[in-house]
Amino acid sequence: AAPSPGMMENTVFMSFTFYSTILILKMYVVAIITGQVRLRKKAFANPEDALRNGGLQYYREDPDVERNLLFLSRAHRNDMENIFPFLFLGAVYSLLDPSPAVARIHFFVFCVGRIVHTIAYLLRLKAPTRSVAYGVAQLPCFSMALQILLATTPYW
Fold first, then answer.
1. pTM, whole model, 2 decimals?
2. Distances in Å between the alpha carbon of 9 and those of 6, 14, 100, 148?
3. Residues of the chain with pLDDT under 50
């Protein structure tokens, strides 16, 4: 379905929507990888999943699976702790009528930072790759939050 004409006029919001959708899809990919780790090793956390995939003997823990799931769950939790606030900040920021080019830079930097952060987590890249990606992604969030606060201070 095509967006309404009024929505199409807000190029900042459309840019925000694009990058937000990329980030949500990235979160889905992490969730799918989680399931694939269990399927590949046939180590299921629920008996009904084991039954559906070969039998109750696969209702078990596997050290490799648990180690991989630890990294996946940390990456997923970190996404929720950072992407959800971005969704709020970016939506409100879009309403402030910022420069489309500056806004796009904010959204792009956050999106790339989060993708690099996830890749660093999943591939266990050497430090400080993950920390740098995290810090870089936080910069546009702090910038948007500050601009929101400055714009709304008169209404406090």
1. 0.89
2. 5, 8, 11, 21
3. none
